[in-house]
Amino acid sequence: MTRTIAIIAALAAIGLMGALYVLTMRSGGADQFAQCRTAQVAGGASAIGGPFTLVDENGQTVTDADVIDQPALLYFGFTYCPDVCPLDSARNAEAVDILEERGTMVKPVFISIDPDRDSPEVMKEFTDNLHPRMLGLTGTPEQVKAASQAYRTYYQKQEPEEGDEEFYLVDHSTFTYLVLPEHGFVEFFRRSTSAEEMAEQVQCFIDAS
After folding, report:
1. What b/e sequence results for 40-69 when a residue is b if at least 16 CB atoms lie within 10 Å of its CB, and e otherwise?
2. Binding site: what residues are annotated?
3. For the segment 66-110, what is each residue's pLDDT rounded down to a tens digit?
């Protein structure tokens, strides 16, 4: 399963990098975040990110404006994920703690791509175990699909094991997205980025915003 996700993530990365390169070619002024980037990403990358409506871990309907009310790290995964999602989310939580120690507040957000099993209650238990400020989001299949498409993520439910319809895995891309209230999406991070590296880059973007 890990190998499958790695292949999918690599293919998704190629597509995302291509999209970001095109964005850098747009007309306009200088990129205020140029010194922070590790990829060819233009500030205010409008082709990635955008409006969404989801349900938070307390059962409340929220929009992107409610969620991105401060710098945020968005990750798309599922709570039944056996390895990748917990590791990536723990890395994100560690980066958030590093930043908080410096006086910089960043919101960690976990968006489920498995709405059939990830109820608000399940999301709350999952996120509370990872970080006290991590926000879990789920929703209807249609809401989740719209949010995923906005951020150009990939996910695909695998066939459940015979005789156990509740047990299945979901292949998915594994990027973490940095979004800022006044700018939207500004950068993505791969699994290979450490918590310390992520914190340094996030701080750079926030300082430059």
Report:
1. ebbbbbeebbeebbbbbbeeeebebeebbe
2. 81, 85, 172
3. 999 999 999 999 999 999 999 999 999 999 999 999 999 999 999
Beta-ladder partners of 76:
111
For the entire predicted model, the pTM comes to 0.83
Helix (H) or strand (E) holding 2: helix 2-24
Instruction: List the domains of the chain with CATH numbers.
Output: 2-208 (3.40.30.10)
Q: Residue 34 half-sphere exposure, CB side, CA atoms within 13 Å? A: 5
Q: Is the Cβ–Cβ distance between 201 and 175 less than 8 Å?
A: no
Rg of the chain over all Cα atoms, to the nearest angstrom: 16
Element (H, E) at 16: helix 2-24
Both structure tokens of 19:
């999209």
**8 Å CB contact between 56 and 137:** yes
Encoded tokens for 175: 């990027």
Binding annotation for Cu cation: 81, 85, 172
Tell how strand 176-180 and strand 107-112 pair up: unpaired
- HEC per residue, 121-179: HHHHHHHHHHCCCCEEEECCHHHHHHHHHHCCCCEEECCCECCECCCCCEEECCCEEEE
Which residue bears the tokens 């695998």? Answer: 158
